[in-house]
Amino acid sequence: MTMTDNKIGGSTEELVVEAGEAQRNRRPSRMNRVGDHLRREWQLYLLLLPTILWLLIFLYKPMYGLQIAFKDYSVFRGVAGSPWVGLEHFYTLFENDQFIRALRNTIYISLLGLVFGFPMPIILALMFNEVVNQLFKKTAQTIVYLPHFISSVIIAGIVITAFSPSAGIVNTVMGWFGLNPIYFLTKAEWFRPIFVGTGIWQEAGFQSIVYLAAIAGISPTLYESAVVDGATRFQMMWKITLPMILPTIIIMLIIRIGNMLEVSFEMIILLYQPATYETADVVNTFIYRQGIQGGQYDLAAAAGLFNAFVAFVLVMTANTISKRYSRTSLW
Amino acid sequence: MSGVRLDKIVKSYGAVQVVHGIDLEIKDKEFVVLVGPSGCGKSTTLRMIAGLEEISDGSLTIDDRVVNRVAPKDRDVAMVFQNYALYPHLNVADNIAFGLRIRKESKDAIKASVDEVGAILGLTPYLERRPSDLSGGQRQRVAMGRAIVRRPKVFLFDEPLSNLDAKLRTQMRAEIKRLHKRLEATSIYVTHDQVEAMTLADKIVVMQDGRIEQIGTPMELFLNPANAFVAGFLGAPPMNMINAVVAKGENGPIASFDGQTLPLPALPDLQNAEGRPIIVGIRPEYANIVTAPQPGSVNCTLNLVETLGSEALLHATVGDDQFVIRTETLGKIDQLDHVNGFTVDPTLIRIFDAKTGKALGGQTRVA
Ligand SMILES: Nc1ncnc2c1ncn2[C@@H]1O[C@H](COP(=O)(O)OP(=O)(O)OP(=O)(O)O)[C@@H](O)[C@H]1O
Ligand SMILES: [Mg+2]
To answer: In this predicted complex, what is the ipTM?
Structure first.
């Protein structure tokens, strides 16, 4: 501790000396600029500190453990003590039908979520924007935001109840039309629509806030000018609102694609059952069953790393494409 | 014929009335400027004409048709906004074409119109650029292009030049004037810059607090203001106002102030009006400097001389009132620091009632 303190003190002194020298030589060094900057803006960095600590502790420190994806890990020998095995776990994974199935399901569910889930909040925001009656608008907004604030466990409970063959509203309504009840949650072919639909119901409203904020930022004179030019409400939505929020849409899309493989893990756990593993089991649930329940930490780490790698590639690609074609990008 | 007529136009926001019954007749091809201090209701009036604000009471006629309940698009007006209202995602050509596309005109017709307007406004080299890659003046021109391309009956401008720097503003002012000569379209122009109003207008409408103070040609308003507000609003620097009371002189009424006197014209309102408080208005340009008291001259105390080159502004006080004299410098530069009074042609003096601010009746019109 004392050692570190001394070191920091020393380096600061060096910096100061260096700064003085650089000024005399009229050749501001990089270090000098960084030092000056830190001294001037230290309050801002202080504010940043908790976030940096959080990132370090919860996201960067665990990365140390990632090496077990390349080791024959045993709890008793520890992370450092376990022997290296190279890519063995990855070979095992790709020979494992369950993993391949989980990977396929992940991609499939993610794509469905993207295709149906991504446009929903945009459509909602555009619709809210057209509502003139403020009371109706506020009420409707509150109703669609609500599911976001309800715990996934309760959401799952509602879904399970709604689709139950005996008392569920869905089967009851189907009964009115003379249809036989279906036990939806035990049917593999129904899992994906139900899961994706639940996700949309839960999050679309809340996600629309971002787009509503973007819409609120559009200068009203753009619309006034269009009104004088004779534009209808639909034309204004199509030719002004949508293009004006396009940068926001693209940023959200990039983020979404980056998180695409992060399929809502607890919702799957809550809704799936062995009968629907065929369509419902995703990489994260696979990791959970293999790693946590089955104790194969190294294999699970390899699966997780692979997932993260694919996500990384996806987000890089999306960003690059967007930067090239729309002048909008995350970085 | 594209005249515009406002009959007792009223605008209220809830219980608050902000425009109190405006009457205004704008002839075909006329360039009318609405001018007044901030918040006087210029924009509101213009927006009612455009159809962007509902008219609370009164009637608006465009081209002999009452349009109170007519949608903006069917009024055949085009509006240029202060912040240009350009679409950042469209290039210049598409911005100009926006109104035509909305109206579903043919591609060829749109292209021809855009090219023509681009040429008129000198935008041809920039048609492919986005607004973000244009200078303020160029953006302003695009905004005008959007209006011109539709060939509307009436042009509406809401402070279109106020975001430009002084030099560009002068330049664009001349351009708007030139454009109006060329297009001969009825135009209503809102500004709070009296120089813009003076230079552009066929007819100026001076507004204050939601009412019209005076309507007339720029020179008419400058020379014969109907009240002290108009006198003080037009002209830079504004007309000097000396608070005085009427007194009896040897040859008729005189104004008495600060222990001095100034002969006044024998207006009916000034007969037997001794002691009546009045405001004596003298334009800075019409006061002639003296360095030693002369018969009929008014004494003043000189505080500051601002030399502007060919002219100088002398800041002085007469009693408690500020008094500015604008004078040429040529051959007089040595005298400027020694000025201690001024003379004025009595016919150029304007006299206002001190209470109402109204110009007294019967004054000789200056022409
Ligand atoms: N939506 C509104 N609700 C209530 N009052 C309003 C509204 N819009 C404008 N007003 C009021 O109406 C009056 C006239 O406003 P207006 O915008 O016409 O002024 P202006 O003459 O254009 O001023 P400026 O030179 O600052 O643009 C102001 O007192 C303003 O506060
Ligand atoms: Mg205004």
So the answer is: 0.84
Q: Is the CB of B224 under 6 A from ligand 1?
A: no
Decide: B260 and B283 in contact? Cβ < 8 Å.
no
CA distance to partner chain A, nearest, from residue B75 (Å): 9
Q: Structure tokens of A308?
A: 């993260």
Sign of CA dihedral B248, B253, B255, B259: negative
The 10s digit of each residue's pLDDT in B163-180 is 888 888 898 899 899 989
Residues ≥6 apart with Cβ < 8 Å to B68: B55, B59, B60
* Distance of alpha carbon B26 from alpha carbon B21, whole angstroms: 16
The token pair that represents A219 in the structure block: 């200068």
Residue A207: Cβ within 10 Å count: 21
Nearest ligand to the C-alpha of residue B37? Answer: 1
What would the pLDDT profile of A123-153 be if each residue is shown by its tens digit?
999 999 999 899 999 999 999 999 999 999 9
Look at B77 and A227 and tell me if their CB atoms are within 8 Å.
Answer: no
Give the C-alpha separation, A130 to A144, whole Å.
16
Q: Please name the residue whose Cα sits nearest to atom 26 of ligand 1.
A: B38
What's the whole-number average pLDDT of chain A? 85
Element (H, E) at B260: strand B260-263
B160–A contact, CB cutoff 8 A = no
CA B331, CA A11: separation in Å to the nearest integer?
71
Residue bearing tokens 């043919």 = B106
Q: Round to whole Å and give the CA distance between B120 and B185.
A: 15
Helix (H, G, I), strand (E, B) or coil at A265: helix
What values do phi and psi take at A190, rounded to 5? Answer: -95, -10
Beta carbons of A259 and A311 less than 8 angstroms apart: yes
Residue corresponding to tokens 């579903």: B104
Inter-chain residue contact A229 with B89, CB threshold 8 Å = no
Closest CB to A240 among B73, B87, B150: B87
Complete DSSP assignment for A165-201: TTT-HHHHHHHHTTPPP--GGG-HHHHHHHHHHHHHH
Q: Which DSSP string corresponds to A136-163?
A: HHHHHHHHHHGGGGS-HHHHHHHHHHHT
A158 to chain B, minimum CA–CA distance in Å? 44
The finding on whether B52 has its CB within 6 A of some atom of ligand 1 is: no
Length of chain A counted residue by residue: 331
CB atoms within 10 A of CB B175: 17
pLDDT in tens, A253-276: 888 887 777 777 888 999 888 888
Q: Can you say whether residue A249 is alpha, beta or left, with left for phi > 0 and alpha for psi between -120 and 50 degrees?
A: alpha
pTM (predicted TM-score) = 0.79
CB contact under 8 A, A229 and B102: yes
Question: With a CB-CB cutoff of 8 Å, which residues 212-251 of chain A face chain B?
Answer: 219, 221-222, 224-231, 235, 239-240, 243-244, 246
Is B70's Cβ below 8 Å from some Cβ in A? no
Cβ contact B102–A240 (<8 Å): no
Determine contact: B83 vs chain A, CB below 8 A. Answer: yes
Cα–Cα distance between A121 and A136 in angstroms, integer?
18
